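Fold this sequence, please.
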Amino acid sequence: MSTGVQESRLGVGIIGAGRVGPVLARALAGAGHAITGISAVSEESRERVESMLPGVPILDVPEVVRRSELVLLAIPGDELASLAAGLAATGSWQPGQLVMHTAPEHGTAVLAPAMAAGVIPLALHPAIVFTGTSLDLARLSGATIAVTAPGPVLPIGQALAVEMGAEPVIVREQDRAAYADAITAAGELSRAVVRQATDALRELGIERPDRLAGGVVRAAIEEELLAAAARDGGDGFPPEPLA
């Protein structure tokens, strides 16, 4: 398969209709790829598919795989190995098929059973907080996507990240766990600081403490991001406003 993803539109199937899968499907469809189908089990996930991907068929997992040149696994990281092995055991994978997962903590090794069947593995993690709505498409624009893939196919992962509107950042296979820890810590610590500040202000009887704390938190985070960019030789421009 050519590494020039932009030169050839792909049939893309999505496994997982949580907050991530339908959003990335919309982004890839916006780049001209055809969405062949998506798996969705719960009523909530089916409603999300109908809202985000009207007209896209809801199929069982093997049928999604059968129809697709690129299979996007938008499921929790602890489910990836068993799914890859299960589909390998039933002979569902197709040689030359692209298989991409979005779990931050894993590189491509978790897809070993699929690779043994001849698929091309990719690991792409968008570094945003997903809501599962069209708001995420704007968040993707200008965000970064961590890309991990074997050297010969790394350009495919980078091209897909660009097509989704983001900037690809290469993360080595052996660094994925540490990358996931850093990203998780950034999100959890930020949430904890906001909760602590707004709770304290609320106890003082201040109305809408989110507004008061929000200005301080946004300014502080932007200042620290500017400082980090300067240390790393960045361009010195302010970061994009926080969503």
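The longest strand covers residues 120-126. The chain has nine helices and seven strands.
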